[in-house]
Amino acid sequence: MTPMHEQELPPGFRFYPTEEELVSFYLRNKLDSKREEVNRVIKVIDIYSIEPWDLPKHSGELCQGDTEQWFFFTPRQEREARGGRPNRTTASGYWKATGSPSYVYSSDNRVIGVKKTMVFYKGKAPTGRKTKWKMNEYRAIEEVNSSNNITTPTLRHEFSLCRVYIISGSFRAFDRRPTELTRVIREQQRDEAGPSNQNAAMIERAQSSSATSSSGELVDNPMAGGSSTDWEMNQQPLWDLWEQFNWP
Q1: How does DSSP assign 24-75, residue by residue?
Q2: Distance from the first to the final alpha carbon of the chain
Q3: What is the C-alpha separation between 140 and 157, in angstroms, rounded?
Q4: DSSP assignments along 101-168, one per residue
Q5: pLDDT of 116-143, one tens digit each?
Q6: Do 104 and 216 contact (CB within 8 A), yes or no?
């Protein structure tokens, strides 16, 4: 099979997946050992043993030559599997978590994963010097049905997916949810379809306003989803479940 970077790609082509695609397609297929080709697109490396500026040369075929962001799978460390904290220290510095973890949503407003943001510091903790290197580490959430038909969300730890990027002067949004323009268009389409569909638009507006706070931190959204496997079935807020995830 011809490597992807040797195939002719149209001008301007760039590998720029959404967060939903990263979690629901790439990470889930990796966790379930499906679609081996994802390993060519996103390489498996021990990301915390490599300096961030050396990571781009280890990226997958579609990220070769990219100057903004790079994607990697990284396996769970042995010390973390034994219940310890992961080692995020390299030879020249360390990765430090910043802000609060946040949920990753599907296009139909279901929680499908969790994201942690980190910044790389040069030197030894806690006096290191902050750099422009950042990372989003994603882990997938799997809904597990118990014997009494209660759906329990479980955080998958075997692999995480990391997006490494450099802070630049221009901001380019990396979407977690459908854009406001997309929601406006959907509501307009429902309104044009007639009064019978206006309730659906009201529900979507309620989902949008309750799913996330202005700071982007985790907020319970009891209206998310709509299938028989929604998290509200076990009557436990998503925020309360965070401690059970045990993600150091």
Answers
A1: IIIIHHHHTT--TTHHHHSEE--GGGS-GGGGGGGS-GGGTT-SSEEEEEEE
A2: 40
A3: 8
A4: EEEEE-TTS-EEEEEEEEEEEESSTTSPEEEEEEEEEEEEEEEEE-TTS-EEEEE--SEEEEEEEE--
A5: 999 999 999 999 999 999 999 999 998 7
A6: no
Q: Which of 195 and 116 is assigned the larger pLDDT?
A: 116
Q: How far apart are CA 137 and CA 151, in angstroms?
A: 25
Q: Distance between CA 141 and CA 61 in Å, rounded? A: 27
Residue 49: phi, psi to the nearest 5? -100, 0
Report the amino acid identity of residue 69.
Q
Total-model pTM: 0.67
CA dist., res. 187 & res. 196, Å (int):
13
Inter-residue contact 51 to 91 (CB < 8 Å): yes
Angle at 13 between CA 12 and CA 18, to 5 degrees: 120
Question: Could you read off the pLDDT of 9-48 as tens digits, one per residue?
Answer: 677 777 889 999 999 999 999 999 998 889 889 999 999 9
Give the torsion through C-alpha atoms of 82, 248, 152, 39, to 10 deg. -80
